[in-house]
Amino acid sequence: MTAPVAFHEVLFPAPVAFGASGGPERRTDIVPLASGFESRNQRWADSRRRYDAGTGLRSLDDLAELVAFFEARRGRLIGFRFRDGLDDRSCLPSGLPGPLDQAIGIGTGALAVFVLAKTYGTGEAAWIRSIAKPVAGSVRVAVGGVEQTEGVHFTVDITTGLITFSPASIPADGATVTAGFRFHVPVRFDTDTLDIDVAGFLAGQVPSVPLVEIRP
After folding, report:
1. What 3-state DSSP class applies to 186?
2. Shared domain check, 207 and 169
């Protein structure tokens, strides 16, 4: 029997995702010292998102859709796209992505491929997050502040987040390349078992449906 691919380019049911809870997770070791001070060590260079989709379930139809989606992903085996309602675009949640939102690189006159990214914070404390699952049709790109045209000046791989400029449109040396976009989070189920009590659900008990980000 042929093994399924490790990732399906499908979106987790939107109505359930809208009510899900969760956000970024980091790992930090903290060691108290005899002096009363403490030593802190960052175990992960990048954060990892975790969600509980159980809080987004509202009806038996939602439950049935969730079970079907879970089975099609074979539990934890296959990843999928998830929309984080708080953090799904290059700008603030209330805004529309624009071509100047995020700096993604500097031209060299020869470099044709750039990776979509989103920067959190400013200065030395800033953290840059690679964006691997942009939403089709949402990506806007500018070079030196001038917006480019998708399909003419550049192409977007929505499965990797790579921007590739055509030979005639490769950014000049020193030109700032920026982008705006919407994106999904690549995740998988973090359980191989859905423990759902229908009677309990109807009585207001919310099952736990853990999801965890797959790092690109």
Report:
1. strand
2. no
In this structure, which amino acid lies at residue 153? H
How do 7-11 and 79-82 pair as beta strands? parallel
Task: Give domain status of residue 74, yes or no.
Answer: yes
What is the pTM assigned to this prediction?
A: 0.90
Mean pLDDT, all residues of the chain: 93
**What does the pLDDT read at residue 196?**
85
Clarify whether residues 14 and 40 are in a common domain.
Answer: yes
Rounded alpha-carbon distances, angstroms, from residue 153 to 98, 125, 141, 142, 170: 17, 33, 9, 10, 8
Q: What pLDDT is attached to residue 58?
A: 87
| Side-chain-facing half-sphere of 19: CA atoms under 13 Å | 12
Q: Do residue 166 and residue 121 come from a single domain?
A: yes
In this prediction, the residues of the chain whose per-residue pLDDT falls under 70 are 1-5, 216
Q: In what order do the strands lie in the sheet with 7-11?
A: 7-11, 79-82, 185-189, 210-213, 48-52, 21-25
67-94 residue pLDDT tens: 999 999 999 999 999 999 999 999 999 9
Q: Is residue 123 part of a domain?
A: yes
Q: Which domain holds residue 139?
A: 102-180
At residue 216, the pLDDT reads: 65
Residue 14 neighbours by CB distance under 10 Å:
11
> Are 194 and 172 within one domain?
no
Inter-CA distances, 39 with 26, 45, 77, 125, Å: 16, 17, 37, 19
What separation, in Å, do the N-terminal and C-terminal C-alpha atoms of the chain show? Answer: 27
